[in-house]
Structures are given as structure tokens and as C-alpha cells.
Design brief:
single chain, mainly alpha, two-stranded antiparallel sheet, 11 helices, globular
């Protein structure tokens, strides 16, 4: 991957990326280390942006004696670029499924799009989601509503309220020292406690993907993300066995960032025109 694809080259502090200048009188917090930017972006935008953070990683600034660090204004610029990448990818998928060109899709199509982005939901979870958004089962969604639908699905990791409560209670049961985090060994014990028989190597691989800050421990949100990834892995194995007689095969799964760089390279992240 070539660093800086899709971004204007210049003398800005973002390692070859020009940043807009703040308005006169803009007050900002003291700068922080550039090396903390990735962790800050993930905390601000959520764990589901981790693949997009990887896309930006090659062009993010690094600590150096010449730089004072990252100010809050610059952090907001990078967060905006990260969100733009996510929206562009979702927009491309939305247009692909909007075969009529009406700018609206049916609910079952929205569920398929969520599945493409790593969240397969059962009926109860969808019903709770719609209730929370004030939508009905026969509703159609425009792109703004689709963004809200995906955001709500990610917020609960595609689980029902009762599933989230059950998983959260199990997490706290193993949080012996009340630190809010579990070690990898504790996470493995918890997974066994929940009755999962997934291969240990597979679980360790997923844990490494979820532990984005590489601190060797896992908080509740990281754990719920891990449970979602394990659920998706199990669903993928089930789909690989083939559809039942008379049923159509589901659409092929893809990583959320399959097209992100193509879009960014073609249009430039700053030129993305959809504003929510």
C-alpha cells in the first residue's frame, strides 16, 4: 500500500497531507503525542472503524523532534477523514443495492448491507433496533436512515438487549479485580464458560484483531466486538455448507474496506459530498 493515496500532497503536518487552517480565535487543548492518534481515533469513532484506521495508518503523522504533537483541531480533521472513508464505502454499497435508483431501499436490503459489514442480525435484534429508531418493519430507508441503522447496529454489536445484558454480566463475572478489563487468558476462560468450542488459535487470532491498542487486555466493548466476530465466523461456516434446497445463496461477504482506497484515490476524501 502506498502511503497518501487519495490525499493531496503538501507541507502539512500530517506526513504529506495538507490540513485546513483553524478559524481565527479557535481555542484548542494542549497537543498530544502523534503516536496516540490511532488509539484516540478508535476510541472516538468506535471499534468498527479499525479497518479504516489501517487504511490511514501509512499517512498518519509520527512522533518526531520537529513536531509539537497533534492538537485537538488536527485530531478532528483526521476523525472527519476517517468518517468520510466509512461513509463512502457504505454509500457505494447502498447504491449497489438501490437497483431502482430511487434513493431508498427496503428493510430486508438494509439487513443484507449490515451483514456485508460484519453484523448479521436475527429478527428480535432487528425489531429492537427499529423500535429504538422509531421505524416500522415495512419502512424504506434513504441513505441517512441507513447510516443511522448501521450506527445503531454497531452500538449494540448486532445483539438483542437481553444478549448484551447476558454477555456483559458474564464479562463482569470474570472481572475479578474490578479493573474493567480482562487478560487474554481470562477471555479464553470466559469463552469456554459461555460454551464456545472455537479453536483456540482462531480465538487468539480474533483477540489480536480486537485488541487494537495492543495492551494485552480487553474491555467490555472489545469483548462484545469479539463475540460479534465469533458469531459472524460461525455464520460464515454455516453458509459455507451451502443453502438449503430451494433457497438462494446469500451474497458473498467482504471486508468493509474493499473499495475504500479506490474511492479515496478517485475522488479524494475531502471532496466527498454527502453531508448528514
Amino acid at each position: 500500500m502506498q502511503g497518501g493515496r487519495g490525499f493531496q500532497q503538501g507541507s502539512g503536518r500530517g506526513r504529506g497531507c495538507d490540513l485546513p487552517q483553524p478559524a481565527a480565535g479557535f481555542q484548542s487543548a494542549p497537543p498530544t503525542k502523534a503516536s496516540k492518534l490511532l488509539e484516540g481515533l478508535l476510541k472516538f469513532t468506535g471499534l468498527y472503524t479499525v479497518d479504516y484506521v489501517d487504511v490511514l495508518a501509512d499517512i498518519l503523522p509520527s512522533d518526531s523532534a520537529e513536531q509539537e504533537g497533534i492538537c485537538f483541531y488536527e485530531f478532528l480533521i483526521w476523525a472527519r477523514r476517517l468518517r468520510d472513508l466509512m461513509l463512502q464505502d457504505l454509500w457505494k454499497c447502498f447504491k449497489e443495492f438501490d437497483t431502482s435508483g430511487s434513493g431508498r431501499i427496503q428493510l430486508d436490503v438494509a439487513i443484507l448491507i449490515a451483514e456485508r459489514f460484519g453484523i448479521s442480525m436475527l429478527t428480535d435484534a432487528v425489531d429492537e433496533l427499529l423500535s429504538g429508531l422509531g421505524l416500522k418493519n415495512d419502512t424504506t430507508l434513504d441513505f441517512d436512515a441507513m447510516v443511522q441503522f448501521m450506527g445503531a447496529a454497531r452500538a449494540v454489536h448486532g445483539f438483542t438487549r437481553s444478549e448484551n445484558e447476558e454477555l456483559s454480566a458474564a464479562f463482569q463475572k470474570f472481572n475479578y479485580h474490578q479493573t474493567g478489563e480482562l487478560t487474554q487468558l481470562q477471555v479464553l476462560d470466559l469463552i469456554r464458560y459461555l460454551g464456545n468450542t472455537t479453536n483456540v488459535d482462531e480465538v487468539n487470532s480474533l483477540i489480536k484483531r480486537v485488541d487494537f491498542n495492543k495492551n494485552g487486555s480487553m474491555d467490555l466493548h472489545e469483548f462484545l466486538r469479539l463475540m460479534r466476530m465469533m458469531r459472524e465466523q460461525a455464520a460464515a461456516r454455516g453458509r459455507s455448507l451451502g443453502p438449503a434446497a430451494g433457497q438462494a445463496a446469500p451474497p458473498a461477504a467482504r471486508r468493509p474496506v474493499d473499495a475504500a482506497w479506490d474511492i479515496a484515490s478517485k475522488d479524494g476524501v475531502e471532496n466527498f459530498s454527502i453531508v448528514l
